[in-house]
Specification:
It contains 10 helices and 16 strands. With 304 residues, it is an alpha/beta fold. 41% of the residues are buried.
């Protein structure tokens, strides 16, 4: 059954991919934007998170909210001010929607499906992490915890809430794969940190598929790890990419100390080890289109 769906963060990479897929299935999609007049690929409504302003018409007839809004996590240094912005862009945005719903008595919203991230677990070495595992340490864990807590407030408004803790999304252009490809293509492909840290990943088609799955399967609720059942170690990640790109992989390791100097606290994005279990999603019927990293990388690089 088709739905009326409102997407926050709809102008971002995942938002655009998800919008295209949902429109192809007949769903009516709208997004929120600070500059709706400049959006030409989908219906857009005005909002400004910092000013806590929103066009209330955006919620008319909406049955599903997909919450993807949030400033890009890795693009700038994590100063105290930047950390506040990273959290507020995720938290204040959903709070603005909930406030509008509560004040205006909007009764049509049935479900909220939100992004989160595997950063929730922090650096956990070899521990196998399921959805019930405790929150980790560090800024990423703190950010994800506040993000998920804000989303959960939708339950108080009678909504079904689904949250996906997303692994490293693999896409043809940009995204987390870009610096790895640049390193390999410039003949500097090697491990970094210990090389043994687990990197959970997900092909963009699988990630889009998980959101579609959560829309269609209305009995789902709670949190799900969004990463296939076979995470890879850092060394395997880079070596497999080098093989597919037909470039050399050097049996060398860039020490984590180098990244800590270069990136500061952001180095945890590259050095943390997160060994994710996909059992809950699979047990509830989700099938990953690209369950193996090799197949995913081959598909991504063939189209890029």
């Amino acid at each position: 059954m088709t739905k009326n769906i409102l997407i926050t963060g709809g102008s971002g990479m995942l938002g655009r991919l998800l919008t295209k897929e949902l429109q192809s299935q007949g769903h009516d999609i709208s997004i929120l934007s600070r500059n709706p007049d400049q959006v030409d690929h989908v219906k857009a409504f005005y909002w400004d998170i910092e000013k806590q302003e929103i066009d209330k018409k955006c919620l008319e007839g909406i049955q599903v909210i997909i919450h993807l809004a949030g400033e890009e996590i890795a693009s700038k240094a994590w100063t105290d001010n930047r950390k506040r912005k990273l959290i507020s862009s995720r938290v204040d945005s959903i709070q603005l929607l909930y406030k509008t719903i509560a004040e205006d008595g909007v009764a049509t919203v049935e479900s909220v499906i939100s992004a989160s991230a595997v950063g929730y677990y922090g650096n956990r070495d070899e521990e196998i992490l399921v959805e019930q595992s405790s929150r980790g340490n560090g800024f990423l864990a703190e950010c994800c915890d506040q993000w998920e807590d804000a989303v959960d407030k939708g339950k108080e408004l009678g909504m079904r809430v689904v949250k996906f803790r997303i692994g490293l999304p693999l896409t043809q252009k940009g995204g987390v794969l870009a610096p790895f490809k640049m390193m390999v293509r410039t003949y500097t492909g090697m491990s970094f940190g210990s090389g043994q840290q687990w990197l959970p990943w997900i092909h963009w088609e699988g990630l889009v598929g998980m959101f579609v799955w959560a829309i269609d399967k209305e009995q789902l609720d709670g949190v799900f790890n969004a990463s296939p059942p076979f995470p890879v170690r850092n060394t395997e990640f880079t070596e497999e990419l080098a093989t597919v790109l037909r470039k050399p992989f050097w049996p060398l390791t860039l020490h984590g100390f180098f990244f800590k100097i270069l990136l500061g606290e952001r180095s945890e994005l590259l050095l943390m080890s997160t060994n994710i279990s996909a059992h809950k999603a699979q047990h509830n019927g989700f099938v990953f289109k690209y369950p193996s990293f090799k197949r995913a990388i081959e598909n991504i690089t063939a189209k890029s």
